Amino acid sequence: GEGTYCDGTSINIISSGGLTYQWSGPSSFTSASASFTLPNVDYTHEGYFVNIATNGDGCTTKDSLEIVISKAVVSLSSNTPICIGQSIVLNGSGGNTYAWTGPAAYTSILQNPIISNANTSRTGYYALQVTNTNGCQDKDSIYVKVNVLPTVTASSNSPVCTAATLTLSSSGGTTYYWTGPNGFASILQNPTISNITSSFAGTFNVTVTDSNGCIATASTAVVVNSLP
User: Fold this and answer.
1) DSSP 3-state assignment of 200?
2) For the stretch 15-33, what's the b/e string if a residue is b when 16 or more beta carbons lie within 10 angstroms of its beta carbon?
3) How many angstroms separate the CA atoms of 19 and 58, rounded?
4) Using 50, 70 and 90 to split pLDDT, how confident is the model at 10?
5) Residue of 55, 45, 66, 65 whose CA lies nearest to 20
6) Helix and strand tally (H, E) in the chain?
7) H or E element: which one contains 153?
8) How far is the C-alpha of 104 from the C-alpha of 102, rounded, in Å?
C-alpha cells in the first residue's frame, strides 16, 4: 500500500497474521514488532517499509508499505515600512490555501492581500498559515510598521513691505520643498526672498519628508504691502 503523511507527524504502522515479524525500511530501519510508531517523520522516512511475517508453521508472507512525506513551506513578505495613508501589501507562497491574521482583528484568505489607507493600528505581526494539497500546514509571521506622518509647520515674517526681505520658516522633517507665487521654488528649510514685489503675495506651500520617508505638507499666506 501507499500513504502520504505530513512532515512532523507520527505514523502508526500495524500488521497482523504472523507469529514473528521482520521489518526493514529507509535509513537502515529495522523492527521485529507487529506494530510500531514512527514519531516526527521527515524525508528520511520516505520510501518502502517491507515486512516479512512468519506464522507458526514457518511459512512466510512478504508485504510492503510506501511512505510519502509531504511538507508545506511558507514564505511571506511585505512592503514594510510604510506611512499612514499608504497600503500594506502582503505576499505569501508555499501552499494551496492561505489564512492571514494580524493587528486590529485582521484576517484574509487571499494569497497576496492589500490593506488600503493603513493607520498605526495596523502596526504589528502578521501571521500566515498555508495548507498544501495534502492538508499539510506551515506557519510564519512578519512584522509590519506603519509610520506616522511628520508634523509640519510653515510660517513667515508676513506682512512685509515692497523691497523688503521675505523669510519663510518650516520644521518637521529632514528635507523640504517650497513652492509659491511667481514661480517660486526652493529646497531650503528656511528660504528668503530679497527685494520682494507684490507678485509674491499669496500662499506658499512646503512639502516635508522625514527620516522614515513619510511626507506631509503645510502652507502659509504672505501679504506684501505697497510703499506709501
Assistant:
1) helix
2) beebeebbbebeeeeebee
3) 9
4) very high
5) 55
6) 0, 25
7) strand 153-156
8) 7
- Of the pLDDT bands very low, low, confident and very high (cuts 50, 70, 90), residue 2 is confident
Q: What does the H/E/C string look like for 67-116?
A: EEEECCCCEEEECCCEECCCCEEEEEECCCEEEEEECCCEEECCCCCEEC
Per-residue pLDDT tens digits for 122-135: 999 999 999 999 99
- 87-124 confidence digits (pLDDT tens): 999 999 999 999 999 999 999 999 999 999 999 999 99
Cβ within 8 Å of residue 218, ≥6 positions away: 152, 153, 154, 170, 172, 205, 206, 208
Half-sphere exposure of 106 (CA within 13 A, CB side): 23
CA 196 to centroid of chain Cα atoms: 51
Neighbours of 152 (CB within 10 A): 20
Those residues with Cβ within 8 angstroms of residue 62's Cβ, 6 or more apart along the chain or in another chain: 50, 51, 52, 53
H or E segment and range at residue 225: strand 224-225
At 1 the pLDDT is 59
**Is the full-model pTM beyond 0.85?**
no
